[in-house]
Design brief:
386 residues; alpha/beta; TIM Barrel; 2 domains; eight-stranded parallel β-sheet; three-stranded antiparallel β-sheet; globular
Length: 386
């Protein structure tokens, strides 16, 4: 069984091209992890997800602990075997979903008591319980339990929240059972405050983790503030550990975050958008419910090596979504995930070849220019209903 090891192969400015070796395979970084919340990437076969180039996916502790239960999944050998996913798996800690989905919740030093959004049953989630559930799920990468600090919030409240997350991080580390090729990530908090982010990074490194996530961003602060926060956070993180920016994001967000030294990403956007007729392309986002696509013979994006991107016309996608055919969301989810993986391949090549800044400029220009279709959609009433 392999050791858990991160190696930087090339750098371009703050950006890194690397590999993360795990018990369940090697991950090329920068990497995007499709979200498989309830042991499924919605609308996709695991084999199709892997075929897009995705090497690692994410599953959700909160959802799986409620249904079907982590003990049941453990009997099947963990999430990977349960869902037939061959590669590495990362599980979040459940903290974010407790804060955002639970009907009633009460937080104290010990953890969070909450009522399930499914049936109202009461549960207690502590750092120790979160780590135990993730062990049951056989997560290749386990996340420390933390509080996702809301935005906006006054700085004293952010400081208190960060301090609590650091105490929970120490308890998470103490509860974690080490195994060869498996890793535990701590989560940097501190809102948009440079000094709090630096303190959080320092405290986590004193505890010692296999990787470091950056949490509490992409929660409404906007891209400019997110980027400026990354600018003052990543320099405080070790060079020999992977950095995971949680919950990000749009293609432009990912490109900018890679330039600021982030290595791993996840977001529901490509899958959620695939279910709502939104296609990410080289030339911006398309709303395929829009009537202007009804007679358009063009594929979604010929630069993406995927049949869903190259073979099917925009007119066909428009037809599928107008008729509410399930094939539409399946194909479009496939395309969106493939598009994200294509971006990651291009970013890795650009870093290796020392041309990342040029790539980022061209990517932003292509996105802003549109393709003559996307640019007009914002003025069309049909687009607002998607």
């Amino acid at each position: 069984m392999s050791d858990f090891k991160f190696q930087v192969l090339a750098k371009d400015g703050a950006a890194r091209r690397g590999t993360l070796t795990t018990a369940h395979g090697v991950i090329d970084t920068p990497a995007f992890m499709p979200v498989g919340t309830a042991a499924t990437v919605k609308g996709m076969l695991p084999e199709s997800v892997a075929a897009t180039g995705a090497q690692i996916i994410l599953a959700n502790t909160y959802h799986l602990m409620l249904r079907p239960g982590s003990e049941r999944i453990a009997k099947f050998g963990g999430v990977r075997k349960f869902m037939n996913w061959p590669g590495p798996l990362l599980t979040d800690s459940g903290g974010y979903q407790v804060m955002s989905l639970a009907k009633l919740r009460k937080m104290d030093e010990n953890g969070v008591t909450f009522q399930s959004h499914i049936d109202g049953a009461k549960h207690l989630l502590t750092p120790e319980r979160s780590i135990a559930i993730q062990h049951d799920l056989d997560a290749t990468i386990t996340m420390a339990f933390d509080e996702c600090t809301p935005f906006p919030a006054e700085k004293p409240a952010v400081a208190d929240s960060m301090a609590l997350s650091m105490r929970w991080a120490a308890r998470s580390k103490a509860a974690y059972r080490e195994r060869p090729g498996y890793g535990l990530f701590g989560i940097v908090q501190g809102g948009v405050h440079a000094d709090l982010r630096a303190q959080s990074a320092e405290k986590l490194q004193a505890i010692g983790f296999d990787g470091y996530a950056i949490g509490g961003l992409a929660v409404g602060e906007g891209q400019e503030l997110m980027f400026s926060t990354l600018d003052v956070t990543t320099p405080h993180l070790p060079q020999d550990r992977p950095r995971y920016l949680m919950g990000v994001g749009k293609p432009g967000d990912i490109v900018g975050a890679v330039m600021r030294g982030c290595d791993m990403f996840d977001c529901v956007l490509p899958t959620r958008s695939g279910r709502t007729a939104q296609a990410f392309t080289r030339h911006g986002t398309l709303n395929l419910r829009n009537a202007r696509h009804a007679d358009d013979p063009r594929p979604l994006d010929e630069t993406v090596p995927c049949d869903a991107s190259r073979v099917y016309s925009r007119a066909y996608y428009h037809h599928l979504f107008r008729c509410e055919e399930v094939l539409g969301l399946m194909l479009l989810t496939w395309h969106n995930i493939a598009f994200y993986q294509q971006i990651m391949r291009e970013l890795r090549a650009a870093i290796t070849e020392g041309r990342l800044a040029d790539y980022a400029r061209r990517f932003a220009a292509d996105q802003a220019r549109g393709d003559g279709e996307a640019a007009a959609e914002t003025a069309d009433g049909d687009a607002a209903g998607a």
